[in-house]
Amino acid sequence: MPSIRNTSIDPVDIPNWRWDPFLTYTIQSLSRFEKKALSIPSDFLDRKVTTGSRSKPVEVAISTWGCSTNHFKKIRAVCLEAGSAASVLNFVAIPFNDFDLPFFGADLVTLPSGHLLALDLQPVLKNDEAHTQKVWERLIPLHDHWQSLLPLGGAIPKEAEPYFSPGFLWTKLPLGKDSDQIIHKVIMPAYIDYFNLYLDLVNESTKISTSRSKILLDGQKSYLSYRAEKDPARNMLTRFYGRKWTEAYINEVLFSL
Ligand code: DBV
Question: What separation in Å is there between the alpha carbon of 107 and the centre of ligand 1?
């Protein structure tokens, strides 16, 4: 019997979801934080639809896992499984803006054309050394190690550059057994390294001044409106769930503060 989720911190239950080990690891790593559920309307917590053609129907399941803690305004994961059409884990952690901390962002996407895999500790203020240096000096060595084992993902849009660090791990892989191995042997440990570094930074962080926290807040708002405006999943979600649901999900659930 599939369990019914009442809140965003209930375990996600999507059979055969490719990215399940990543979310399971993440939630385990967050065990020492006291988690509060996010108030997400049930329509966005879990939703299943059938699309595709009559002869080849595709079941699409989407679930949203998320919480807030003493350090995080919002941590949320989009979990999507549509069989051979798509499998996604999109994960964002948004710290309270009275800590000088980056975002943690992951986009693990499997489409019929292949896997798109992105991981980063994304800066709130890219040109502010007090914000970036302590992160980048520890992130870049991890990046250099793991990226050297992966094909380069290629250019990202110029307008996206302010939101990425030099430790942006980014690759594209074809579908198949070899890539499944790479996901297991490279992407999983890279994800663990990045997330562990992130949690170390969170543990070490101390509160900043009110005036600086306002600057951080502006930076967070600009990042989130960029993500909402340019969400690469918009077309796919609209195809599966329609425009009204998708716009509300993107603007009011995924990238709201
Ligand atoms: N991306 C999201 C959300 C998704 C999602 C909320 C619900 O922000 C999935 C799911 N990303 C998703 C899908 C695609 C991409 C692509 C479905 C494929 C779109 C398509 O080809 O139709 C990283 N993700 C991408 C691309 C980049 C990223 C650079 C390619 C975009 C393009 O080619 O136009 N997203 C980007 C990123 C982070 C992120 C670096 C954070 C680390 O979340």
Answer: 6
67, 8 contact by CB (below 8 A): yes
168 close to 147: Cβ distance less than 8 angstroms:
no
The CATH number given to 20-254 is 3.40.1500.20
The sign of the torsion formed by the CA atoms of 172, 175, 178, 179 equals positive
Say if residues 102 and 130 touch (Cβ distance below 8 Å).
Answer: no
- pLDDT value of position 90: 98
pTM over 0.90: yes
Asked if residue 163 lies in contact with residue 123, where contact means CB atoms within 8 angstroms, the answer is yes
Cβ–Cβ under 8 Å, residues 80 and 61: yes
Q: pLDDT, tens digit, for every residue of 51-66? A: 888 998 999 999 999 9
Among 1-5, 110-114, 125-129, the least confident range? 1-5
In the chain, domain spans? 20-254
Sign of the alpha-carbon torsion through 174, 149, 186, 224: negative
Residue 139 Cβ < 6 Å to ligand 1:
no
Test site for ligand 1: of 109, 156, 191, 236, most ligand atoms within 8 A of the Cβ: 109
